[in-house]
Amino acid sequence: MVGYWSAAPPPRMVEMAKIAEDSGYDSVWTAEAYGSDVVSPLCWIGANTSRIKLGTGLMQISARTPASAAMTAATIDHLSGGRLILGLGVSGPQVVEGWYGQPFGKPLARTREYIEIVRTMLRREDPVTYDGSHYPLPYPHGTGLGKPLKMTVHPLRNKIPIFLGAEGPRNVQMATEIADGWLPIFYSPYRHDMYEGITFPKGFEIACPVTVIVNDDVEASLSFVKLSLSFYIGGMGAKDRNFHLDVVGRMGFAEDAAKIQDLFMSGKRDEAAAAVPDALADEISLCGPKERIRDRLAAWEESPVTTLLTGTGDEATVRLLAELTS
Q1: Is the pLDDT of residue 83 over 90?
Q2: How far, rounded to the nearest angstrom, does the alpha carbon of residue 73 sit from its chain's CA centroid?
Q3: Whole-angstrom Cα distance, residue 235 to residue 250?
Q4: DSSP-assigned beta bridge partners for residue 241
Q5: What is the pLDDT averaged over residues 172-186?
Q6: Helix, coil or strand: residue 319
Q7: What string of DSSP letters covers 13-28?
């Protein structure tokens, strides 16, 4: 999992993807927030690899119309020889309204329409019309000259796998209904009962990010995970609307999450990181010496998760995980 950039491109991005491919990894994933986009690095990686699948994890739907997403997907899939996995998600109101200048309302309805249109365009059966509330086609309030169109490109695959980034129970349920896979942001293989009542269809994929740190000092390894968690819980969302805080609360850490948010928003970021429970950080990651990671992989293997998206830039760790999961 390459993720998105901070100030500059991650070092050895392409080289790490090639090492992963040579080690037998299934896929490599990029991301976007409000900096590097999800598509350009993925194409760069795709041009330098030949077998590994290419995932957008995830493409923000407010950044592109459904038609733009369908065109992009068809293009990358052709250029890569059918390796694309199209991961989509709504992001959050701070980014959607603050960065893209789009309304955030009714995210589930917008997502459902978006995916339906993308699938229709990729099937390329007829000129596309869509009588929806959010993405009507042709656009009804313009010149009146809008024309139903069919993609000129013949997609290499007319059913490119679509994964949905989802955190809330209704959003996860929707993913099982309209997508081929689910991209959670935080998931504990020890607490799958929090999704009790949601049926995951046969063949449905769950591709879960897992930070991996190989280090004899477990506490030091977890401190990095806690720092990242504190940012998501405390700073990635508004005081009264933070989807990451909500999912951590549903995992059983609601009081801790509220405390972390208060500390973070008060400018006490070190204290916020320290307030992240070790149990939370440990359950969603793989940290410690090789033997401990090997033992803790058992919980993931017994879970519904089908793919671990490993967050590491260390070559030795990439090779170790290939060894432990072979």
Answers
A1: yes
A2: 16
A3: 18
A4: 238
A5: 97
A6: helix
A7: HHHHHHHHHHTT--EE
In whole angstroms, what is the distance from residue 188 CA to residue 286 CA?
Answer: 11
Cα distance between residue 275 and residue 91, in whole Å: 26
Q: What is the mean pLDDT of residues 89-104?
A: 95
Phi, psi of 181 (to 5 degrees): -165, 170
Owning domain of residue 83: 1-183
Q: Coil, helix or strand for 116?
A: helix
The CATH number given to whatever domain includes residue 24 is 3.20.20.30
Instruction: Tell me the C-alpha distance between 299 and 284, whole Å.
Output: 11
- How far separated are the first and last CA of the chain, in Å rounded? 19
Closest among 149, 283, 157 to 210, alpha carbons compared? 283
Asked if residue 195 is part of any domain, the answer here is: no
Cβ partners under 8 Å of residue 203, min gap 6: 180
The residues, ordered by sequence, that sit 6+ positions from 64 with a Cβ below 8 Å of its Cβ are 72
Q: Tell me how far apart the alpha carbons of residues 96 and 243 are, in angstroms, rounded to a whole number.
A: 14
